[in-house]
Every structure is written in C-alpha cells, then in structure tokens.
Amino acid sequence: MARRVVSRKDKIAQAESVEAEKTAKKKKKAKTAKRKTKAKPATEVRMKMYWGVFSQSLKRIAVFEYDQKSEAEKRAAELSKGGKSPHFVQKVKEEVGIE
Q1: Domain residues for 78?
Q2: Does residue 2 belong to any structural domain of this protein?
Q3: Is pLDDT above 70 for 83?
Q4: Within-domain flag for 10
Q5: 37-81 confidence digits (pLDDT tens)
Q6: What is the Cα–Cα distance from 79 to 85, expressed in whole angstroms?
Q7: Taking phi first (over 0 means left), then psi (-120 to 50 degrees means alpha), and beta for anything else, what does residue 38 get?
Q8: Does residue 51 form part of some domain?
Q9: Beta strands of 1-99 (E only): which ranges?
Q10: pTM value?
Q11: Residues 22, 24, 25, 28, Cα dihedral to 10°
Q12: Closest Cα to residue 18, out of 8, 10, 29, 7?
C-alpha cells in the first residue's frame, strides 16, 4: 500500500488556523474588564516599649514599664538566686490598643 504524502504547507496552514482560533478566544475573554478596588490605607500600628524578665528558656516571667528598669533587674536577680537558672532583662515591644 502506498502512503499519502503530507504537504508541509498544509500542515503549517492548519497549525496557523488553530493558533488564530486560540488568540481570537483570548481576545474575547480579555474584553471583560475587572472591577478596580481601592486599596485600604494601612492603619498605623502603635507600639509601646516594656522591660521583660525572661527565664533561660525564653519564657517571659514578668513585664515592667519602660521607666522601671531597675525594678525589672531586681526581679531578675531575685529569680536567679539559689542556684536556679539565670534570668535576664530584655526590651519588649507590644502593640498598644486604641483607647
């Protein structure tokens, strides 16, 4: 049996027609415009600084106001006495609620 010889020009024309159909479908879909939404303005988050007393495993034991650093250090020294794990004082930032 003899095979039918396929023309390259026919194959190219067929591929181009398929591509043309795909681009026509994409153009139809592109016509539907999405609604533009306004971005909400970012709300400013207020932060407040505290002194925190932490254990060696980074567990927060106590929190003191920023102007009470000496009390925080006393508490850390008090907790560290008697061979217990050492405690330390570190700055802590927390979000302030709107009042």
Answers
A1: 47-95
A2: no
A3: yes
A4: no
A5: 888 888 888 899 999 999 999 999 999 999 999 999 999 999 998
A6: 8
A7: beta
A8: yes
A9: 47-54, 60-65, 88-95
A10: 0.53
A11: 160
A12: 10
Judge contact between 55 and 87, C-beta under 8 A.
Answer: yes
**Residue 90, beta-bridge partner list:** 52
Cα–chain center distance at 32: 31
User: Rounded to an integer, what distance in angstroms lies between the CA atom of residue 95 and that of residue 36?
Assistant: 32
| Residue with token string 């794990």 | 85
Longest CA–CA separation in the chain, Å? 102
Q: How many structural domains comprise the chain?
A: 1
Among left, alpha and beta (phi > 0; psi -120 to 50; other), residue 82 is left
Q: Is residue 31 part of a domain?
A: no
- Say if residues 61 and 54 touch (Cβ distance below 8 Å): yes
Amino acid letter at 20? A
Q: What would the two tokens of residue 56 be?
A: 């060696």
